[in-house]
């Protein structure tokens, strides 16, 4: 009862604040989309379209009140727009039309809103607020799970989180992947966060959030989580400036967490036994079916096309003559994209992720030695690390259309746009009477003369801004 009242009050407060501060409504949609208050509320929020209302308010407030300093068109942005168009077009030849429309309804919204994010999230404060909102919204699901894992050890298929059932954040593969994506971002916020007062213990608090995220991922005992954890740990080691300290801390934490969840070792051993372990073998057979399917249907079969598959399982001890399974899910984001959107969709998907990932590497190197942009370099590293988790864990979990990956792509675009605006704001042409004043009245200087502008103000634009600064 009290939980529902608090959630309703928070929802109404976000709508109220957003009426004067439009970007808050975008944060509100991220909160609704990630935390999903409608799933844990007992009344009101579970009876109204909370996501639709918040999303419509975010779009409406932007177009009515906030259209300024748009980002340049980067390749990942273009790919997201093209994917939104292409996934809609595939409905024309959907294998299972009724199910395809259901998935399209949320997948299209996820793609469009992620593409919308860089239009609204522009300044450092807004970018950090976006990251804080996403991490804390997700933490509401994994903090209780992580604490229970430290006490009980977790378990495969055991639900210890805020949500029930076996979908969304209640599903182990999904939860473990997004938890590991949150780890580098939480550590970044502990180091550079400005929105929350910088108390002495604040970095340790964020480190605790990161540890609980790892504990949750390990506690699910998903094999994909172990793959993602190994990948992000190694990548963060490469990006770390204090490698020895990182190895000591990460190694100690890893040993403790794995010792508390010994079942992970048993699950990990089955990776080598994929030919006899049912779950792993099913994945391989589904992937083989998908390749055969797109050989004759290169444009894919639209959403949930896996419903028409037929998987012939080899004989085993329980079934000496073998058996047949129908409608087995993709079990991979890459094969999900291939089977549903075909080769064109997979190409756009890989281009969007790859171009975003490598552009963030370049951005990090570019900003590394600039004191005023050091936070951009570190956040670029955090977003890269989170995307790497998806690229590894996501190879074994169907998450291609989930919004969390695309939020990271959107954050990458916002970071690049911030630096793009900052670079162009550093040197603004000065002409007219202002050039005379700067020369001490000794004569007019040509428009090629420039004046440095602080890089922390990327929204600084043109002569109108010059008049405001001079007033």
Short description:
The protein contains 17 helices and four strands.
Keyphrases for this structure?
471 residues; mainly alpha; 3 domains; two-stranded antiparallel sheet; 17 helices; disordered C terminus
Describe the protein.
The protein is mostly helical and 471 residues long. The protein folds into 3 domains: 1-68; 71-420, no CATH class; 426-470, no CATH class. Helix content is 65%, strand content 3%. It contains 17 helices and 4 strands. It is globular. The relative contact order is 0.11.
- What is the average per-residue confidence, as pLDDT, rounded to a whole number? 83
Q: What is the number of helical segments per DSSP (H or I, 4+ residues)?
A: 17
- Approximate strand percentage: under 5%
Strands, count: 4
Q: Going across the biggest sheet, name each strand in turn.
A: 1-2
Shape estimate? globular
Radius of gyration: 24 Å
Q: What letter string, H or E per element, gives the SSE order?
A: HHHHHHHHHHHHEEHHHEHEH
* Low-confidence runs: 271-277, 430-471
Q: Look at the helices and sheets and give the structural class.
A: mainly alpha
Specify the helix fraction band.
55-70%
How many structural units, i.e. domains?
3
Query: Largest sheet at a glance?
Result: 2 strands, antiparallel
What distance separates the N and C termini?
54 Å
